[in-house]
Amino acid sequence: MDRTDHQILKCLKENARENATNIGAKINLSTSAVIERIRKFEASGLIKQYTIVLDQNKVGGELMAFISVRLEHPKYYENFVELINAHSSIAECYYIAGDFDFMVKIITKNGQSLEDILNYIKSIEGVSLTRTSVVLSTNKNEVCMLPDFEK
User: Fold this and answer.
1) S-S: 61 plus which of 5, 24, 56, 118, CB 3.0-4.6 Å?
2) How distant, in Å, are the alpha carbons of 52, 58, 62 from that of 118?
3) d(Cα 64, Cα 97) in Å, to the nearest integer?
4) CATH fold of 3-44, please?
């Protein structure tokens, strides 16, 4: 990855709908060269998808929490992941090292719905312990991390 690739990715990070002509004008590169590089990013899997970022508060997601989950035994892993993936209020789930096995990010409307989700998680076979942390405010939320590039 060179400086030009990094500049293109930075433009797309700021606005994935930015067209190649505008990107090219910003970084002093032809439209066709920008398109070619973007296609290479897509073909290599570097760019996995294009999406939108919603303001969760405006769509009823006013409460965010993280639930740490411990399983009794690794044999419960697949069933747990399947049931977590099926729940619409569970935004993210990570398999982690440490005292807990999973970190689950919840975005929901209020305390009652968080309680319902927590009870859902606790009812999954093999869950032995949970710990819930409610988010008071978000200080940084990067959707995409660009690789460091030497200037």
Assistant:
1) 56
2) 27, 23, 16
3) 22
4) Arc Repressor Mutant, subunit A (1.10.10)
